[in-house]
Amino acid sequence: MKLIFISFVKSAPRYRQDPSFIYRCENLALGLESIGHFSMLYHCSEVTPSILLKSDCVVLHRPRNGWRFRWILNFCRAFKKKVVCDFDDLVMDPYFAEFSPAFLNGVRKISDVRLDFEKHEKAISEFDFITVSTEELRVRVLKRWPSSCVFVLPNSVYHGWYSEKEEYDLKKTPPRVIGYMSGTRSHDRDFMECRHHLKALLDEDEGLSLHIYGEVGDGVSTLGPQVKVFPKVPFYNYKSCYEDIAVAIAPLENTPFNQCKSSLKAIEAGFFGLPTVASHNGDFERLSNSGVWLVNDSNDWKNQLTGALDASQSFEYRSWVKSRSIASSNVVERAREFSYFLKK
Q1: How far apart are CA 1 and CA 39, in angstroms?
Q2: 50 near 40, Cβ under 8 Å?
Q3: Are 105 and 186 in contact (CB under 8 A)?
Q4: Contacts of residue 4, Cβ cutoff 8 Å, sequence gap at least 6
Q5: For the chain, first and last CA: distance in Å?
Q6: b/e for 188-219, b at 16 or more Cβ within 10 A?
Q7: How far apart are CA 275 and CA 327, in angstroms?
Q8: What are phi and psi of 43, to 5 degrees?
Q9: pTM of the predicted model, to two decimals?
Q10: Among 1, 175, 250, 326, whose CB has the most other CB atoms within 10 angstroms?
Q11: Which ranges constitute the DSSP H helices of 99-176?
Q12: Please, which residues have CB within 8 angstroms of residue 241's CB and are 6 or more apart in sequence?
């Protein structure tokens, strides 16, 4: 089967650096190629009729209504190509625009966020076949579009990491460092979920440190000298971050948007044998037997972090986490599931 994955991200020159596109399209394409399929990756601005004619199936990632979307969709229909759209966040229902992290954290105006949601809404309404990253997102999509065929395709460990030279030594006991891959300022409020409890732990244990990769607002300076803040790390350099930490954290503010989010932070950390302490949502719960320590309420952060830090010092535990992560988040298995879905 020949598949084409198309990105609709606004910045065409950087679409291959978009972690969402990397995981939902590039990674899946690598998995599909390993089982005998052929895949190509494009930005919507690059797509031509000759490219579409070479395909059996076209996957549109986060499509947005507009003239490019319309002509691609109409062309595929005219030539009877199977067309699937993929979403990995709750960005297609304007009713939930007010819960967008970009708005809640003051990064974007609500009018701009709502306009984006409306464009996604118009696009997804055109599809019979939809893939999403979590069961919670599937429920939301089916509530709005009950006649759609919605398939949950969870995120997986990046396939390229398997083929690279193994540089991470599981036998090496990690330093007592908590790591947070925050990325952009849109996670400020998420970080506030655990900030107070992190400070309490850091105050109690001078040998404990916190590494933050990205931005989390102005409250970091009050956490003390044990905190180091690094610039946002490009996806292809993620691996280096996990060499210096023992436990990853994934705090999430309790919103409808975040309840639909994927457990990617735990999937990434788990590949390197590291546990993740995470706020409670459905997809993190799915990995609760794969190295995820769930925080059920705000007062539980300290207990879970202490337990995960202690467990991370064991080579046997780290080996178990890595094996469970690979077993539960294998993109080749996801690719097989996706290929079966396409036969419907």
Answers
A1: 8
A2: no
A3: yes
A4: 39, 40, 41, 42, 47, 51, 52, 54, 55, 57, 58, 59
A5: 14
A6: bbbbebbbebbbebbeeeeebbbbbbbbbbee
A7: 15
A8: -90, 150
A9: 0.94
A10: 250
A11: 101-104, 110-124, 135-144, 160-163
A12: 179, 181, 211, 213, 230, 233
Tokens of 160: 């390229």
- What tokens were used for 194? 């655990």
Amino acid at position 260, single letter? C
Place of tokens 């199977």: 82
